[in-house]
Each structure stands twice: as structure tokens, then as C-alpha cells.
């Protein structure tokens, strides 16, 4: 979906794809996959650079760093890829090098906290859990009141679809997901970028 961005990922061609137990050097390597919500958000960012040019962007739960990289390629002034997994931050640095960009990284748990002076916050595929959805429903209104533009990339995960927070989201972009996403993500076929308006 984003051929402009190169990423180091675990794919079916990689031995780590089927590694089990002691054969797997990482526990829960969420950062090694390009989640569909992140893909649709990255596509949106690359196609609309004027929204992000010269902006300060915080990518929360950055994973492989694709959306953060997309914002840097789109001319964002300052970008921070945030993920609480320190291995994710190393993967993000490798992916930045692959794409010839530099950005900041942080392992701070920022969800629910005051985040400082950011223009934009990304949440790519972060609504995989109802507890997270509840946290975001408390945090996003505070961010929005402080002037932050919040963009959510999501492939239709139930914790978002069924959450009252969705009433405060406006759809900005929808696109079909690639074939590999259909196989890997229980048949979810469409990705959407939402903007928080609450």
C-alpha cells in the first residue's frame, strides 16, 4: 500500500514467521508487522503532505515506524516515534535508515499523559483492545482541547467499532486493504483514517 516506504518486517518468507518458544528471539514482536491501520494511515499521510508539512508529529504506538516515516517524508518539521517496547525503537531506527530519514524516538508511556507541544498525534491500529479504547476516550478530548489534530488509522477492529468514542470520529479516507492484510487480519477488508473531533 505504501511502496514509497521500505521496512524490515517479519513476513511468511522469514524463519521468524513460524518460530515458536525458544526458537523466537523476541516476545510479542508487534513492531515487526505492518498493521493495516498503520498502512492506511501512512498512505493518507503520503498523499496529503500539506497537512503535515512543518508540523510537529507524535506517532503513538509506532511499531515499525511507518506512519512516523511517512510524516517525515511528507515534510513534517519534528517527528517522534513513540513505543513502549525498546526493541521497537531499534527497529524504527533501522527502518529510518532504510528510508534516509531521521526522527526522534521515545519509550515513554504517553497514553493518558500531558504530551507537550505537538501539532499532530497518530494512532495507527491502536484500538485492538477495549481497555485501550477506554483510555483513549479519556485522553483524546484533552489532547483535542489543547489544539492537537488526532488521526486514527483502523481496519474496523471491534473495540473501536463498538465504542462510544467513535461518535467523535469523522472519516477522512477509506481504501481497500492489500491481500496479505485480508489473510493476516481475519478478513478485514477496508482501512479507514478518522479524525477525532470531540
TrEMBL record:
<dbReference type="InterPro" id="IPR050078">
    <property type="entry name" value="Ribosomal_L11_MeTrfase_PrmA"/>
</dbReference>
<keyword id="KW-0808">Transferase</keyword>
<comment type="similarity">
    <text>Belongs to the methyltransferase superfamily. ETFBKMT family.</text>
</comment>
<dbReference type="GO" id="GO:0016279">
    <property type="term" value="F:protein-lysine N-methyltransferase activity"/>
</dbReference>
<dbReference type="GO" id="GO:0005759">
    <property type="term" value="C:mitochondrial matrix"/>
</dbReference>
<dbReference type="Pfam" id="PF06325">
    <property type="entry name" value="PrmA"/>
</dbReference>
<protein>
    <recommendedName>
        <fullName>ETFB lysine methyltransferase</fullName>
    </recommendedName>
</protein>
<keyword id="KW-0489">Methyltransferase</keyword>
<dbReference type="GO" id="GO:0032259">
    <property type="term" value="P:methylation"/>
</dbReference>
<dbReference type="InterPro" id="IPR029063">
    <property type="entry name" value="SAM-dependent_MTases_sf"/>
</dbReference>
Amino acid at each position: 500500500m505504501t511502496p514509497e516506504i521500505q521496512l524490515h518486517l517479519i513476513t511468511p518468507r522469514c524463519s521468524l514467521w513460524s518460530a515458536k518458544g525458544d526458537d523466537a528471539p523476541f516476545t510479542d514482536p508487534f513492531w515487526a508487522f505492518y498493521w493495516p491501520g498503520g498502512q492506511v494511515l501512512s498512505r493518507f499521510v503520503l498523499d496529503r503532505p500539506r497537512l503535515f508539512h512543518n508540523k510537529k508529529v507524535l506517532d503513538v504506538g509506532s511499531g515499525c515506524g511507518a506512519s512516523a516515516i511517512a510524516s517525515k517524508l511528507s515534510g513534517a518539521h519534528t517527528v517522534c516515534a513513540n513505543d513502549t517496547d525498546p526493541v521497537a525503537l531499534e527497529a524504527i531506527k533501522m527502518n529510518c535508515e532504510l528510508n534516509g530519514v531521521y526522527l526522534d524516538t521515545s519509550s515513554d508511556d504517553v497514553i493518558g499523559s500531558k504530551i507537550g507541544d505537538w501539532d499532530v498525534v497518530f494512532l495507527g491500529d491502536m484500538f485492538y483492545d477495549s481497555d485501550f479504547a477506554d483510555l483513549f476516550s479519556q485522553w483524546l478530548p484533552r489532547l483535542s482541547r489543547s489544539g492537537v489534530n488526532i488521526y486514527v488509522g483502523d481496519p474496523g477492529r471491534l473495540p473501536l467499532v463498538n465504542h462510544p468514542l467513535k461518535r467523535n470520529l469523522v472519516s477522512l479516507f477509506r481504501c481497500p486493504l492489500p491481500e496479505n492484510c485480508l489473510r493476516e487480519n481475519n478478513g478485514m477488508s477496508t482501512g479507514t483514517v478518522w479524525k477525532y473531533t470531540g
